[in-house]
Design a protein that fits this description.
This protein is of the alpha+beta class and about 500 residues long. It folds into 2 domains: about 5-235, ATPase, nucleotide binding domain (Nucleotidyltransferase, domain 5); about 305-395 and about 480-504, Nucleotidyltransferase, domain 5. The protein contains 19 helices and 24 strands. Strand 18 (about 285) and strand 19 (about 295-300) form a beta hairpin. The longest helix has 25 residues, at about 480-504. Belongs to the FGGY kinase family.
Amino acid sequence: MNVLLGIDLGTTSLKVSLYSETGLRIGSQSREYPIQVPQPGFAEQDPLDWWNAFINCCQQLKADYPEAFEQIAGIGICGQMHSQVYLDQHDQILRPAISWMDQRTASIAERYNRDASIKDLIFENTSNTASTTYSAMHIRWVKENQPEIWEKTESILIAKDYLKFRLTGQKATDYSEASGTLLFDNQREKWSQEMFDLFEIPSQLIPEVSASDVIIGTVSAEAAKITGLRAGIPVANGSTDNSASAFGAGMISSSQVTLIIGTAGVITVCSDKPLIDHLDRTLCWHYCLPKHWVTLGIMQTAGESLQWFKNSFDPPDETGTESGDIFNRYNESIRNVPDGSDGLIFLPYLNGERTPYWDSNARGVFFGINLKTEKSHFIKAIMEGVSFGLRNNIETVESLGIQIQDVRAVGGGLKSQVWLDILGKIIRKPITTISGHDTANLGNIILCGKAIGLYTSYAETIQQLVKTDRTVAYPDGSEIYEKQYPLFLELYQDLKPTFKKAAG
């Protein structure tokens, strides 16, 4: 039996899973690690925390599943985007990795966006605009503010690529990961020398880029000794966690969508050409498949909106119940609340909003409170407001010239049949949920399996390994939601100047 190992290097934890070649998850281990905040607006991590978490997971999996662990035929990997590791000439870490969450580069991004010609140049080369998220902004900050670090820097690796380097001794990255640097020409699938020149970053600091489904090296004798893995196991190039998760949910064709309601809300739309948004509302990145791209809409606080409500009005010390119990009670409590929550509309902008507004001043609003409004109305209105926000993002992507047909849903928020039905009525497209909760590592092992020749066709492999759960379809939607949705959009536009005034 061939066994494949998947590694998902997330922002706060790393998960390692063993799979059979038939897609059966044999076992899984995860380890958490901290985010360091040396000062407000900063967010950093120790790359050794990632490596040590991986070692611990491997050792535990080997102890729990010794036979399967010895049969590992390949390793697939994905990870958090943007976060970068600085190495010296001896490949020693020079400073903590700067996380994608870090906001220290706001003034640098503003500097590049202020000049229209430079902003246009960046967009022309990368299909995106500068923001605090991109690696190039962080690298530029190190160059300007830590010259003693910059002078010693010989190579820069994104998070998962550092783990690959520790495993194989090879430095490499993939198209999807390169998209998050703002140094990559997404349309031409190659590094942009113009961006290296603009940001004054020597191109030799950045590794070669290639497809996700190629083998970049094998587990070294040194790594084998530390992790317990067998030396010589092939390691795939891998992809971003967003790409791997969408791929593990079965997204392989243009017009397919993966929708996630987790802390944030994310729609990832697959296309066979870059969908360029000249209005700068969405993100355009490369997918984990060659000649495939993804357009992303990202809500800041989706599932987190309901979590906020729970923390504020049903804290554990008062209810004595766990989060899962509370959310089950919420589902029951809203069953008799009519669609539209008797006129209550929620704007889910509790911590600003990303796409399509990019408005850090936006805030959450309950509109339409009346004497009939009860606690259950607020709960359902939150679910409806988040769903309106997701529809807004879907329609924004469709305005770029693609008709979305197939929506695949993953993430904890849509375990609720009630919320799934609300979302189905609001977006008016069929939504299919995916069985299992580790789609990122499933995507990892499919990419790896293809790289080592275990799988020959992605379409056939997806059909065999990705299992769907349930589908909801409300093509006609709901009359009340069709009336409320324009009001939802209008409320934000009317309040936008007020949000800005309040922030000032």
